TrEMBL record:
Transmembrane segments: none
Domain DUF58: 42-242
InterPro entries: DUF58, vWFA_dom_sf
Annotated Pfam families: DUF58 (PF01882)
Protein's name in the database: DUF58 domain-containing protein
Amino acid sequence: MLTPEYLHALQNLPLAARRAAEGMLHGAHASRRKGAGMEFNQYRPYQPGDDLRRLDWRLAARSDRYYLRESEVDTSLVVHLVLDATASMNHRDDNGLSKLEYARLLCAALAYVATQQGDAVALTVLHPQGLQHLPPRSDARQQQRIYHTLEHIEAAGRFPDTVTLAPLTARRQPALTVCVSDLYEENGEIEQLLTRLRAATGEVLLLHLMARNELDFTYRGAVTFEDLETGQQLQLDAGQQRRVWQQQLQAWLLDTARRARTRGFEYYRLNTAKPLTDALREFLRRRARG
């Protein structure tokens, strides 16, 4: 079992990404589109600006009309990985792994899988002080660029403001946007960003990270909780508050999933104590529909 703790303990992000993705590429298929490929599919009328090398000159000589040969070709997607690196991602589970460390492994594995599929991969890290952005590329060195960026990320601060985020949605480009976040927000700012990204790129896969100690409320006795982004503290007795906590958490999770799907996002919740396998399967399933 390739547990998150094991992968993190490797201290080698490229190796961990490859290990996590083992066995996940079997049966994956590239999507297909019409274009200038090898297998003939159909003709279509010439339009100004088309590549003249694709004209069927013999057909033109017979019919006095200009047509292009179209083929089915394997096509790559643009996969845009968007990583929430705000301070709440520093939350640690009972296994000692933080959400950011899990997210780092997950993004590295997704980049590995996407690259193996021939996709162009982009990475954006969301920080309050600015965006770290690697534009989409499919060359052999892009994976290393992504690994290097992920290895040096530190979670801090609150979610970036709309001015900081504006460049992300300024350009419309079809892509599969994969957002990795714990979805802790103050005024719906993550939902707003993803709504704009969906309008700009067309597809959003939202991977919602939750730690096991949050989901199961594994705390005991008197506990002091601190909001990692605001510094606010709350003291409570874990035994007395467990039922109320779990009821409110389940209500929030159900509402979060409902709102995400209402907005048109593909939503998937992940437990950071469990292997990355389910997230990678969900990515491949979503990609196969592209």
